[in-house]
Amino acid sequence: MSTPQFSEFDFFKKRLGQTERLLAVKQQQIDSLLSITSAVNNNMPITALARIYENILHAHLAVSKIALFINESGSNWMCITPGDLPGNILNYPVHEKFSKFNSIIPVASLKDELLAGFEYLIPVTHKKVPIGYVLTGPFGNEQGDTKEDKLNFIQTITNIIVVANENQKLFKTQIDQMVMQKELKLAADMQNMLVPSSLPNNEKIEAAAYYRPHKNIGGDYYDFVNISEHEIAFCISDISGKGIPAALLMANFQANLRTLITRKYQLPQFVEIINQKVCEITKGEKFITMFIATYNYNTGILTYVNAGHNPSILYNNGKIELLDQGCTILGMFETLPYVSFGEIKITPGALIVNYTDGLSEAADNDGKLFDTEGLVNFINHNHQLSLTDFNTKLIDNIIAFKQNMDFDDDITLLTLRFKC
Description:
CATH class of the largest domain: Alpha Beta
Structural class: alpha+beta
Number of domains: 2
Distance between the termini: 134 Å
Strand content: 15-25%
Protein backbone atom coordinates (compact mmCIF):
# COMPACT_ATOMS: atom_id res chain seq x y z
CA MET A 1 0.00 0.00 0.00
CA SER A 2 1.22 3.46 -0.81
CA THR A 3 1.60 6.08 1.96
CA PRO A 4 -0.90 9.00 1.65
CA GLN A 5 0.81 12.11 0.40
CA PHE A 6 -0.10 15.59 1.72
CA SER A 7 0.12 18.44 -0.69
CA GLU A 8 1.59 21.81 0.12
CA PHE A 9 -1.98 23.11 0.05
CA ASP A 10 -3.00 20.67 2.80
CA PHE A 11 -0.03 21.78 4.90
CA PHE A 12 -0.93 25.44 4.66
CA LYS A 13 -4.58 24.62 5.24
CA LYS A 14 -3.63 22.86 8.47
CA ARG A 15 -1.42 25.77 9.53
CA LEU A 16 -4.22 28.19 8.72
CA GLY A 17 -6.61 26.23 10.92
CA GLN A 18 -4.12 26.32 13.80
CA THR A 19 -3.60 30.04 13.31
CA GLU A 20 -7.35 30.67 13.26
CA ARG A 21 -7.79 28.71 16.50
CA LEU A 22 -4.93 30.62 18.08
CA LEU A 23 -6.42 33.93 16.94
CA ALA A 24 -9.77 32.88 18.37
CA VAL A 25 -8.08 32.09 21.70
CA LYS A 26 -6.28 35.44 21.70
CA GLN A 27 -9.52 37.21 20.87
CA GLN A 28 -11.18 35.44 23.79
CA GLN A 29 -8.36 36.56 26.05
CA ILE A 30 -8.62 40.15 24.82
CA ASP A 31 -12.39 40.06 25.36
CA SER A 32 -11.80 38.64 28.84
CA LEU A 33 -9.33 41.38 29.70
CA LEU A 34 -11.76 44.01 28.41
CA SER A 35 -14.53 42.47 30.49
CA ILE A 36 -12.40 42.53 33.63
CA THR A 37 -11.05 46.05 33.11
CA SER A 38 -14.55 47.35 32.37
CA ALA A 39 -15.79 45.83 35.63
CA VAL A 40 -12.82 47.35 37.48
CA ASN A 41 -13.46 50.78 35.95
CA ASN A 42 -17.09 50.54 37.08
CA ASN A 43 -15.89 49.98 40.66
CA MET A 44 -17.58 46.61 40.95
CA PRO A 45 -16.97 44.97 44.34
CA ILE A 46 -14.28 42.34 44.64
CA THR A 47 -16.89 39.59 45.00
CA ALA A 48 -18.35 40.48 41.58
CA LEU A 49 -14.87 40.64 40.05
CA ALA A 50 -14.16 37.20 41.48
CA ARG A 51 -17.23 35.74 39.75
CA ILE A 52 -16.15 37.18 36.39
CA TYR A 53 -12.64 35.84 37.00
CA GLU A 54 -13.94 32.34 37.74
CA ASN A 55 -16.16 32.31 34.65
CA ILE A 56 -13.27 33.31 32.39
CA LEU A 57 -10.96 30.61 33.73
CA HIS A 58 -13.65 27.92 33.60
CA ALA A 59 -15.12 28.83 30.21
CA HIS A 60 -12.08 29.89 28.19
CA LEU A 61 -9.26 27.88 29.74
CA ALA A 62 -11.24 24.93 31.07
CA VAL A 63 -9.53 25.27 34.45
CA SER A 64 -11.17 22.69 36.65
CA LYS A 65 -10.32 24.12 40.06
CA ILE A 66 -9.52 27.66 41.28
CA ALA A 67 -8.58 29.13 44.67
CA LEU A 68 -7.72 32.85 44.59
CA PHE A 69 -6.49 34.35 47.87
CA ILE A 70 -6.22 38.08 48.48
CA ASN A 71 -4.81 40.03 51.41
CA GLU A 72 -7.58 41.68 53.41
CA SER A 73 -5.38 43.36 56.00
CA GLY A 74 -2.16 42.55 57.80
CA SER A 75 -1.93 38.78 58.16
CA ASN A 76 -5.58 38.23 57.20
CA TRP A 77 -5.95 36.39 53.87
CA MET A 78 -9.24 35.37 52.29
CA CYS A 79 -10.24 33.05 49.44
CA ILE A 80 -12.61 34.99 47.15
CA THR A 81 -13.40 31.98 44.92
CA PRO A 82 -14.76 29.58 47.55
CA GLY A 83 -17.02 27.61 45.16
CA ASP A 84 -17.16 24.04 46.48
CA LEU A 85 -13.65 24.16 47.97
CA PRO A 86 -13.27 22.31 51.29
CA GLY A 87 -12.58 24.16 54.51
CA ASN A 88 -8.98 23.01 54.70
CA ILE A 89 -8.32 24.97 51.48
CA LEU A 90 -10.40 28.03 52.41
CA ASN A 91 -8.46 28.32 55.69
CA TYR A 92 -5.09 27.33 54.26
CA PRO A 93 -2.21 29.45 55.68
CA VAL A 94 -1.26 30.72 52.24
CA HIS A 95 1.09 33.53 53.29
CA GLU A 96 2.95 31.33 55.71
CA LYS A 97 3.37 28.60 53.07
CA PHE A 98 3.75 30.63 49.88
CA SER A 99 5.44 33.94 50.80
CA LYS A 100 8.88 32.76 49.67
CA PHE A 101 7.69 32.14 46.12
CA ASN A 102 7.68 34.94 43.54
CA SER A 103 7.17 32.95 40.35
CA ILE A 104 4.86 30.22 39.04
CA ILE A 105 5.67 26.76 40.43
CA PRO A 106 4.10 23.28 40.16
CA VAL A 107 2.02 22.47 43.24
CA ALA A 108 3.48 18.96 43.27
CA SER A 109 6.83 20.44 44.31
CA LEU A 110 5.25 21.64 47.57
CA LYS A 111 4.52 18.04 48.62
CA ASP A 112 1.38 18.98 50.54
CA GLU A 113 -1.50 16.49 50.40
CA LEU A 114 -3.99 19.24 51.27
CA LEU A 115 -3.33 20.78 47.87
CA ALA A 116 -4.18 17.62 45.93
CA GLY A 117 -6.15 18.49 42.79
CA PHE A 118 -4.26 21.73 42.15
CA GLU A 119 -1.53 21.86 39.54
CA TYR A 120 0.05 25.31 39.76
CA LEU A 121 0.70 28.07 42.29
CA ILE A 122 0.74 31.58 40.80
CA PRO A 123 1.86 34.36 43.19
CA VAL A 124 1.02 38.02 42.54
CA THR A 125 3.36 40.65 43.98
CA HIS A 126 3.51 44.44 44.08
CA LYS A 127 6.94 45.98 44.68
CA LYS A 128 8.13 42.53 45.74
CA VAL A 129 5.37 42.30 48.37
CA PRO A 130 2.89 39.40 47.95
CA ILE A 131 -0.68 40.66 47.52
CA GLY A 132 -2.34 37.54 46.11
CA TYR A 133 -1.98 33.83 45.42
CA VAL A 134 -3.94 31.62 43.03
CA LEU A 135 -4.02 27.82 42.97
CA THR A 136 -5.23 26.37 39.69
CA GLY A 137 -6.32 22.89 38.78
CA PRO A 138 -5.47 21.16 35.49
CA PHE A 139 -6.38 22.78 32.17
CA GLY A 140 -8.66 21.25 29.57
CA ASN A 141 -7.31 19.59 26.42
CA GLU A 142 -8.55 22.21 23.94
CA GLN A 143 -6.07 23.29 21.32
CA GLY A 144 -4.69 26.78 21.19
CA ASP A 145 -2.17 28.38 23.56
CA THR A 146 0.66 26.48 25.14
CA LYS A 147 0.45 25.74 28.86
CA GLU A 148 3.05 28.43 29.49
CA ASP A 149 0.95 31.00 27.61
CA LYS A 150 -2.15 29.98 29.59
CA LEU A 151 -0.29 30.36 32.88
CA ASN A 152 0.97 33.78 31.84
CA PHE A 153 -2.58 34.81 30.91
CA ILE A 154 -3.90 33.61 34.27
CA GLN A 155 -1.13 35.54 36.00
CA THR A 156 -2.07 38.68 34.04
CA ILE A 157 -5.79 38.48 34.73
CA THR A 158 -5.14 37.57 38.38
CA ASN A 159 -2.88 40.59 38.71
CA ILE A 160 -5.70 42.83 37.45
CA ILE A 161 -8.11 41.41 40.03
CA VAL A 162 -5.71 41.57 42.95
CA VAL A 163 -4.40 45.06 42.13
CA ALA A 164 -8.02 46.24 41.74
CA ASN A 165 -8.68 44.97 45.26
CA GLU A 166 -5.62 46.82 46.57
CA ASN A 167 -6.78 49.99 44.81
CA GLN A 168 -10.26 49.62 46.30
CA LYS A 169 -8.74 49.26 49.77
CA LEU A 170 -6.52 52.30 49.16
CA PHE A 171 -9.48 54.32 47.88
CA LYS A 172 -11.56 53.30 50.89
CA THR A 173 -8.69 54.27 53.19
CA GLN A 174 -8.44 57.65 51.48
CA ILE A 175 -12.20 58.18 51.78
CA ASP A 176 -12.08 57.17 55.45
CA GLN A 177 -9.23 59.61 56.02
CA MET A 178 -11.14 62.40 54.28
CA VAL A 179 -14.21 61.67 56.40
CA MET A 180 -12.07 61.58 59.53
CA GLN A 181 -10.39 64.88 58.62
CA LYS A 182 -13.81 66.43 58.08
CA GLU A 183 -15.03 65.10 61.42
CA LEU A 184 -11.88 66.37 63.13
CA LYS A 185 -12.37 69.81 61.60
CA LEU A 186 -15.98 69.87 62.76
CA ALA A 187 -14.89 68.82 66.25
CA ALA A 188 -12.14 71.47 66.27
CA ASP A 189 -14.66 74.10 65.15
CA MET A 190 -17.00 72.93 67.91
CA GLN A 191 -14.21 73.29 70.47
CA ASN A 192 -13.47 76.80 69.28
CA MET A 193 -17.12 77.67 69.83
CA LEU A 194 -17.00 76.31 73.38
CA VAL A 195 -14.34 78.68 74.67
CA PRO A 196 -15.21 82.38 75.02
CA SER A 197 -14.83 84.32 71.80
CA SER A 198 -13.91 87.42 73.82
CA LEU A 199 -12.88 88.17 77.38
CA PRO A 200 -13.59 91.32 79.41
CA ASN A 201 -11.27 94.27 79.80
CA ASN A 202 -13.13 96.93 81.75
CA GLU A 203 -12.92 98.97 84.94
CA LYS A 204 -13.53 95.87 87.06
CA ILE A 205 -11.46 93.11 85.49
CA GLU A 206 -9.03 92.34 82.70
CA ALA A 207 -8.79 88.82 81.23
CA ALA A 208 -6.78 87.21 78.44
CA ALA A 209 -6.25 83.64 77.25
CA TYR A 210 -3.95 81.56 75.08
CA TYR A 211 -4.94 78.16 73.72
CA ARG A 212 -2.82 75.86 71.56
CA PRO A 213 -3.98 72.25 71.10
CA HIS A 214 -1.24 69.68 70.60
CA LYS A 215 -3.20 68.31 67.64
CA ASN A 216 -6.31 69.55 65.86
CA ILE A 217 -8.47 68.63 68.84
CA GLY A 218 -7.18 69.01 72.37
CA GLY A 219 -8.45 68.15 75.81
CA ASP A 220 -8.02 71.54 77.49
CA TYR A 221 -10.89 73.88 78.28
CA TYR A 222 -11.34 77.30 79.89
CA ASP A 223 -14.36 79.52 80.47
CA PHE A 224 -15.49 82.83 81.89
CA VAL A 225 -19.09 83.38 83.04
CA ASN A 226 -20.88 86.46 84.34
CA ILE A 227 -23.08 85.13 87.15
CA SER A 228 -24.55 88.52 88.03
CA GLU A 229 -23.67 92.21 87.92
CA HIS A 230 -21.34 91.83 90.87
CA GLU A 231 -20.10 88.21 90.53
CA ILE A 232 -18.14 86.23 87.96
CA ALA A 233 -16.91 82.67 87.62
CA PHE A 234 -13.95 81.33 85.67
CA CYS A 235 -12.39 77.92 85.24
CA ILE A 236 -9.68 75.99 83.48
CA SER A 237 -9.69 72.21 83.03
CA ASP A 238 -7.91 69.32 81.37
CA ILE A 239 -9.96 66.43 80.00
CA SER A 240 -8.23 63.05 79.72
CA GLY A 241 -7.78 61.91 76.15
CA LYS A 242 -7.81 63.77 72.88
CA GLY A 243 -9.76 63.84 69.66
CA ILE A 244 -13.49 63.61 69.09
CA PRO A 245 -14.35 61.84 72.40
CA ALA A 246 -12.63 64.64 74.33
CA ALA A 247 -14.45 67.26 72.24
CA LEU A 248 -17.83 65.65 72.95
CA LEU A 249 -17.07 65.40 76.66
CA MET A 250 -15.93 69.02 76.65
CA ALA A 251 -19.21 70.14 75.06
CA ASN A 252 -21.25 68.26 77.66
CA PHE A 253 -19.03 69.51 80.48
CA GLN A 254 -19.44 73.13 79.36
CA ALA A 255 -23.22 72.79 79.11
CA ASN A 256 -23.43 71.43 82.66
CA LEU A 257 -20.97 73.96 84.04
CA ARG A 258 -22.75 76.99 82.56
CA THR A 259 -26.14 75.71 83.70
CA LEU A 260 -25.11 74.84 87.24
CA ILE A 261 -22.84 77.81 87.99
CA THR A 262 -25.77 80.26 87.70
CA ARG A 263 -27.96 78.36 90.19
CA LYS A 264 -26.39 79.94 93.26
CA TYR A 265 -24.91 76.72 94.64
CA GLN A 266 -22.09 77.10 97.11
CA LEU A 267 -18.91 76.26 95.21
CA PRO A 268 -18.20 72.93 97.02
CA GLN A 269 -21.77 71.79 96.33
CA PHE A 270 -21.42 72.84 92.70
CA VAL A 271 -18.27 70.71 92.37
CA GLU A 272 -20.01 67.68 93.90
CA ILE A 273 -22.90 67.97 91.45
CA ILE A 274 -20.74 68.46 88.38
CA ASN A 275 -18.62 65.49 89.46
CA GLN A 276 -21.79 63.35 89.42
CA LYS A 277 -22.57 64.64 85.93
CA VAL A 278 -19.10 63.70 84.71
CA CYS A 279 -19.46 60.19 86.19
CA GLU A 280 -22.82 59.74 84.47
CA ILE A 281 -21.31 60.68 81.13
CA THR A 282 -17.97 58.88 81.30
CA LYS A 283 -18.84 55.80 83.43
CA GLY A 284 -15.45 56.14 85.13
CA GLU A 285 -13.52 55.86 81.85
CA LYS A 286 -12.41 59.49 81.55
CA PHE A 287 -11.42 62.10 84.09
CA ILE A 288 -11.29 65.87 84.33
CA THR A 289 -9.02 68.09 86.37
CA MET A 290 -10.45 71.53 87.04
CA PHE A 291 -9.71 74.78 88.80
CA ILE A 292 -12.84 76.88 89.29
CA ALA A 293 -13.31 80.15 91.13
CA THR A 294 -15.90 82.83 91.75
CA TYR A 295 -15.14 86.44 92.48
CA ASN A 296 -17.41 89.05 94.02
CA TYR A 297 -16.66 92.61 92.93
CA ASN A 298 -18.45 94.06 95.97
CA THR A 299 -16.69 92.04 98.65
CA GLY A 300 -13.40 91.43 96.83
CA ILE A 301 -13.57 87.78 97.89
CA LEU A 302 -12.21 85.05 95.62
CA THR A 303 -13.58 81.58 96.38
CA TYR A 304 -12.07 78.59 94.61
CA VAL A 305 -11.92 74.79 94.40
CA ASN A 306 -9.00 72.97 92.81
CA ALA A 307 -10.13 69.53 91.61
CA GLY A 308 -6.79 67.83 91.03
CA HIS A 309 -5.56 70.56 88.68
CA ASN A 310 -2.25 72.40 88.56
CA PRO A 311 -2.41 75.07 91.28
CA SER A 312 -3.34 78.45 89.87
CA ILE A 313 -0.86 81.13 90.90
CA LEU A 314 -2.10 84.30 92.59
CA TYR A 315 0.02 87.45 92.75
CA ASN A 316 -1.76 89.45 95.44
CA ASN A 317 -0.43 92.48 97.28
CA GLY A 318 3.13 91.66 96.21
CA LYS A 319 2.96 88.05 97.41
CA ILE A 320 2.68 84.74 95.53
CA GLU A 321 0.15 82.10 96.62
CA LEU A 322 -0.46 78.68 95.06
CA LEU A 323 -4.19 77.89 95.00
CA ASP A 324 -4.31 74.17 95.75
CA GLN A 325 -7.25 73.71 98.13
CA GLY A 326 -10.02 71.46 96.78
CA CYS A 327 -10.59 67.80 96.03
CA THR A 328 -9.56 64.92 93.82
CA ILE A 329 -10.09 64.86 90.06
CA LEU A 330 -13.62 64.69 88.66
CA GLY A 331 -15.09 61.46 87.32
CA MET A 332 -13.09 59.05 89.47
CA PHE A 333 -15.60 58.68 92.32
CA GLU A 334 -19.38 58.98 92.13
CA THR A 335 -19.22 60.72 95.50
CA LEU A 336 -16.14 62.81 96.16
CA PRO A 337 -14.38 61.72 99.39
CA TYR A 338 -13.95 65.36 100.42
CA VAL A 339 -14.28 68.86 98.98
CA SER A 340 -12.50 71.79 100.58
CA PHE A 341 -12.33 75.32 99.25
CA GLY A 342 -10.13 78.36 99.50
CA GLU A 343 -11.28 81.91 100.20
CA ILE A 344 -9.01 84.93 99.70
CA LYS A 345 -9.41 88.69 99.99
CA ILE A 346 -8.19 90.20 96.74
CA THR A 347 -6.52 93.61 96.55
CA PRO A 348 -6.87 95.80 93.42
CA GLY A 349 -4.24 94.94 90.82
CA ALA A 350 -3.98 91.30 91.90
CA LEU A 351 -3.12 88.85 89.12
CA ILE A 352 -4.12 85.19 88.83
CA VAL A 353 -2.49 82.81 86.32
CA ASN A 354 -4.42 79.64 85.43
CA TYR A 355 -2.72 77.06 83.22
CA THR A 356 -2.68 73.40 82.20
CA ASP A 357 0.18 70.95 82.65
CA GLY A 358 1.27 71.27 79.02
CA LEU A 359 2.74 74.62 80.07
CA SER A 360 4.31 73.77 83.41
CA GLU A 361 5.64 70.42 82.16
CA ALA A 362 7.30 71.87 79.06
CA ALA A 363 10.80 70.37 79.01
CA ASP A 364 14.13 71.41 77.52
CA ASN A 365 16.62 69.14 75.71
CA ASP A 366 17.90 67.80 79.05
CA GLY A 367 14.41 66.95 80.29
CA LYS A 368 14.30 69.80 82.79
CA LEU A 369 10.76 71.12 83.34
CA PHE A 370 9.74 74.78 83.20
CA ASP A 371 7.62 73.86 86.24
CA THR A 372 5.77 76.04 88.74
CA GLU A 373 9.03 77.60 89.83
CA GLY A 374 9.58 79.00 86.35
CA LEU A 375 6.05 80.41 86.32
CA VAL A 376 6.45 82.05 89.73
CA ASN A 377 9.73 83.62 88.68
CA PHE A 378 8.16 84.95 85.49
CA ILE A 379 5.16 86.40 87.36
CA ASN A 380 7.36 88.17 89.86
CA HIS A 381 9.22 89.94 87.06
CA ASN A 382 6.34 90.61 84.63
CA HIS A 383 3.13 91.06 86.64
CA GLN A 384 2.88 94.72 85.62
CA LEU A 385 2.44 93.93 81.90
CA SER A 386 -0.91 94.06 80.14
CA LEU A 387 -2.32 90.54 80.11
CA THR A 388 -2.03 90.19 76.35
CA ASP A 389 1.65 91.11 76.55
CA PHE A 390 2.05 88.96 79.66
CA ASN A 391 0.70 85.86 77.91
CA THR A 392 2.70 86.48 74.73
CA LYS A 393 5.95 86.98 76.62
CA LEU A 394 5.33 83.90 78.79
CA ILE A 395 4.72 81.67 75.78
CA ASP A 396 7.80 83.09 74.05
CA ASN A 397 9.86 82.32 77.17
CA ILE A 398 8.61 78.76 77.26
CA ILE A 399 9.34 78.23 73.56
CA ALA A 400 12.87 79.53 74.14
CA PHE A 401 13.20 77.30 77.22
CA LYS A 402 12.27 74.24 75.16
CA GLN A 403 15.14 75.03 72.76
CA ASN A 404 12.97 74.38 69.69
CA MET A 405 11.70 71.06 71.05
CA ASP A 406 8.13 70.35 69.93
CA PHE A 407 5.30 70.64 72.43
CA ASP A 408 3.85 67.24 73.30
CA ASP A 409 0.65 68.42 75.01
CA ASP A 410 -2.02 71.09 74.79
CA ILE A 411 -1.05 74.54 76.07
CA THR A 412 -3.74 76.64 77.77
CA LEU A 413 -3.31 79.84 79.73
CA LEU A 414 -6.01 82.00 81.32
CA THR A 415 -4.88 85.13 83.16
CA LEU A 416 -7.00 87.65 85.05
CA ARG A 417 -6.24 90.97 86.74
CA PHE A 418 -8.72 92.22 89.36
CA LYS A 419 -9.12 95.98 89.28
CA CYS A 420 -11.58 96.33 92.15
